[in-house]
Amino acid sequence: MHLTIHRGTKEIGGSCVELKTSNSRLLIDLGMPLVNKKGGPFDSKILENKSLNELKELKLLPGITGLYKDEVKTTDAILISHSHLDHYGFLKYVHSDIPIYMSEGAKQLIKISDIFTPNKVGPINAKVVDKDKRVKIGDFVIIPYLVDHSAFDARAFLIEVEGKRLFYSGDFRGHGRKSILFKDMVNNPPKGIDCLLMEGSMLGRDKPDISAIDVIGIGSGVVDRLNELDYKVAGVNVGESPTSDEDKKKYECRIFWSNQDGGWISHSLNTDQIGVGSTPVKALKDMQKGVDAVFALAAEDETIQPWRKAPVLEQYGEIF
Question: pTM for the whole thing?
Fold first, then answer.
């Protein structure tokens, strides 16, 4: 078996893994990137009005022959772990004869998402795989596992081929509504694994207190990503102030990319503190320091009012 990771080793999102034998070829996920080459947010508008050849030449699509609509099909199937664009977003370019295996939940969510999002996939050759049920595709035998993730009905995959066993975790978490799945996996992992491909967004990091973030200003997918990094973040609509002492570490903020500053800005709307950073998480942590400092001063000087509404944010740059 030959293994190629086309995207996902140096960035979060845009996952795409290829498994190949002398007789069969299988892909795991075919996602749209979350970031561009400079580390800023990926703008899907760059895909508009471009031919497949142009997308390949720009290296926006993974360089896999026999995968796309304008090629002779040489890919046997695609496995999709879950219904987030950074794992399925490029399915619209896939040859219509290639079957795409996913859970029933993922299939329905992708179909529904097409109604509401501009990054539409359109009709695909979707096949449903049930958890724990073996599926044979060419030389490959696939055993799907249900995992806990912010995307409903997500899957990990155990793949057997040529006497080897590969386990692909997909995105997962240990703190969600189905956290028992993570505990069961840790206590009873698949046996005899020769290769483990695991999402590794976070292995350990200092965390700020819980933050309520404007889901419009922050942009699609970032709330989920912060939660997956084990940051306590809630997506909200801006406008409400804290209502009790318990909420004094919960502050609504807006995270956006600033063209002027060339980085991410995190703005606490109820304390008017600003954080900057090269990533949304770094900007959020920087803002946390300012908020903590204001409350520390307010605890010593009652004339200091930590709660103050922020001005309009549009002056900082383009908001996503």
Answer: 0.65
